[in-house]
Amino acid sequence: MTKQQLAPGLAVAPQIQPADVAQLAREGFRTIICNRPDGEAGDQPVFAQIAQAAREHGIEAHYLPAESGKVSDEQGIAFGQLLASVPKPVLAYCRTGMRSTTMWALSQSASQPLPQLLAAAAAAGYDLKGVVRRIANHGRTPVEVAEAEHAVVIIGGGAAGIATAASLLARAPDLDVAIIDPADVHYYQPGWTLVGAGVFDAASTARTMASTIPRGVHWIKAAVAAFEPERNAVILDGCRVVRYQHLVVCPGLKLNWAGVDGLADTLGRNGVTSNYLYHLAPYTWQQIQLLRGGRALFTQPPMPIKCAGAPQKAMYLAADYWRREGRLNNIDINFCSAGAALFGVADYVPALMEYVQQYDIHLRLGETLTAVDGPAKRATFTRVRADGSKEVITREFDMLHAVPPQIAPDFVRVSPLADAAGWVEVDPGTLRHKRYPNVYGLGDAANTTNAKTAAAARKQAPVVAHNLLNAMGKENGVAQYDGYGSCPLTVERGKIVLAEFTYGGKVAPSFPRWLIDGTRPSRLAWLLKERIMPPLYWKGMLKGREWLATPELTDR
Fold it and tell me: Which one in 177, 330, 443, 473 has a CA-CA gap of 20 to 30 Å to 40?
């Protein structure tokens, strides 16, 4: 945990972890203020976890969230009022500390000279020039004055963003490319299922962002606040502006923990866990090992979600462990899914159903998790009856693996780039935006109907790279994405049902059936998942090596 003194009695910091609170207590901090909304990133603990740790150490905790780059004057006033009323010293935090610093500066603008505020922020490592411009323009963002301009700007340094940058440079090594992402760490998220089963160590799925960004790419370490596609501009946290000739939007999606009442308050406690968070995947494995009897609930929200098979992957691996330990007969396993089918592609369902029967799993299809009472260990579900009425069902649990509903990031949902559901609106084949021809979208934030997986991004990145360069006159032909997605369903330790399919649920195997029959559990597929895919990800996909991912071209 790094923190900087901003003013007497106030320090600011990037995202803190629950484990950091004990150190803050030892250092004498009496109040924590969170300025970051829940669900911005997969490695982010929810505020309720920070608040619980604070209570345990006698520290006040307050929640005053602001969307990145959209700190309002009203929030600045609220921050100042809160700061004046709480015990000192105070630690305020957000993703990077920028929102906290901005709120503080706005709260003090009437009582301190502007140079003094800027100097204090600069000494703490925060540049407030963007806030100065905003105030001078009476709240209007001055897009005419850009901080930087690049030929290609990529929003997001996840799998899709890094792979696209690498594919672009593999085709045009001298291309001016910038990636905008505020994160310090890049995660191999497909590995979190195996972390939750004790197969991988969590640290093996993480590398520094700096080490994954291709050489020659400019890294703008900031969060995006808004898009101005009519002016070819991106507005950053602090109201800074970056202009582009071509834009690629792939920031991932948002885990909407607030979409399930009470869930955020109990994550990481009371047997409630989720492999969708980096720091909770090890807790999943801990809970699996500790459970010797009782009821285990595994939930899946309505689509779309990231890796639609992940909720049941966690369940199968847990059941396999309990079977190996001789505990399975003592554990009542329930799979409570909002979907109407076990899996969206029917060809893979028979093999999965065999494991459902082997593990004696109770399928609760059509049920959506709506509330969790952690201390009482009760989960509430809603099911829609045939006549359209709703039925509320409450189940007790000893362990709950919960998957939250998922939505596009806030700055995407409210932007001109979004469709009616909030996702980036692109042509499903070319991945070019339907209304802004110099904008492309891919990965989890795009409104394509493919499975939202890293395997999909691996196929999409070369398509975007080729088509963008075609638009610049550097490539011939138009590349087409066929909707390919892959979901390695870990049905037991050592075996996988390798689901591969394109748009419309058409089965699309990468290997001959005699080698890997994706509709049946396979040991070779497990070897692929455990041993081959991680290095292929780090050393292939993120380096612009398009093995089994060369796009098909058409003349149109």
Answer: 177
